[in-house]
Amino acid sequence: MPSADVATKVLKLPEVLDLNAANRLHEQVLSHKGENLELDASQVNRVGAQCMQILLSAAQSWQAEKQGFQVVEASDAYIKTLQLLGISDESLLPKEMLK
What we know:
Blueprint: E1 8-12, E2 16-17, H1 19-30, E3 36-41, E4 46-47, H2 49-64, E5 69-74, H3 76-85
Parallel strand pairs: 1-3, 2-4, 3-5
Helix pairs in contact: 1-2
């Protein structure tokens, strides 16, 4: 359950989340530590395993701290990468897939 007294921030993910983007993604995610975070993955065209690992780790950290962490929109490429990697963490699935 996300903390209701903390504002929710939206992080728009870039088109390419590959090894070159991993460090920047890590920094961006950490800059929102302590805040409820929604991810907009609607423009993502390519996702590497390293960036997906960062997102999985972040989802677990936010959950442990009882902060909100959710993908609100996702491209087909993002969803296909989740499926290919066998990731079923609800925090990384877009809201429309959870209905």
